[in-house]
Response regulator RpfG family c-di-GMP phosphodiesterase
Amino acid sequence: MSETLPRVLCVDDEPNVLAAMERNLFDEFDVEVADSGEAGLQALHQGERFAVIISDMRMPNMDGATFLSKAREVSPDSVRILLTGQADVESSIAAINKGAIFRYLCKPCSKEELVASINDAVRQYRLVRAEKELLATTLAASVKTLTEVLAMVAPWAFQRSAFAQSCVRHALVKLNWPDGWLYTIAAALSQIGCVGIPAEIVQADAAQRKLSEDEQRLLQEHPDVASRLVKCIPRLELVAEIIRHQAKEAAVDAPIEVCRGAHLLRAALELERHATLGRRSVDRPAEILRTVRPALPEYIIKALADFRVNVTNVRNAYIRELTPGWVLDEDIRTTKGLMVLTKGHELTDTAISALQRLLAANAIKEPIRVR
């Protein structure tokens, strides 16, 4: 079938029903069929994503409600439709909430009703994908611009947020949370409220030197400042709340994204704090994180337990050789002694560009030591 047709997965244990679906939907959709919930899940793990998933309610071993609930975990953007008999209406209504089902249809269902429902589901799927595309492009580009401004105005704050992003990305691979962009953007913008704080105050805090009451207040208020700034950006309301709770636990009734996002960001910033102390190391992340108070969830600690451990390949590199993901093994200072990047900083495209500009102006020397 043409790749331009929406992909539809039909699941039913009756071969005659599947054959009828293929025959009725052939001209308008790219149809794939599966004769059980298990086979349907296997189809979801292979090939391109499906726009719509249709399942019969009554099937042996795994009923339609259970299958669609599991399908939601595998392919959350796919729109789900449940086919039921009249006797199954009560259980089907309960399944709508369990599997976030878009619509349920009673059998027998006419071709016209089925096609119309699938077309509605395809439109819903495209809306969801368009929203995510917006987040991945326009919004991501805006966030990138903000972080680049942060890098120019407050390099030390940018370094903290860049380190936090590295931690968050590392953990998300294991946590497999949906909408991972929420947590990476929260890390990227977590320090934007620090723009008005003198660098010496932050460095004194990192070194655990005593601060005045006014200095302590400036540091304690920066998450709220950042949260207010970010909250003004459409679709970043949850990100703003994660940022606001980066140094404390969120309320128990807060959205789950805020609760776990705040835990992860707090853990990432704790590791960054240790990396900027005299230790310059996060060789034992789990030990560090288990001392944090309030206590962090164990699943967060496990997700970061191997962050940057066993990194032993150290070499001298010229600026032109630098690659995003490499980690600095020494402080980078200008020829006048101004700190540019600290040891332990993970290089990004923005950081490498800044080093290239400084090298062109003869403001730094190479090679530099990296891991």
About this structure: The CA atoms of residues 316 and 368 lie 5 Å apart. The two ends are 49 Å apart (CA to CA).
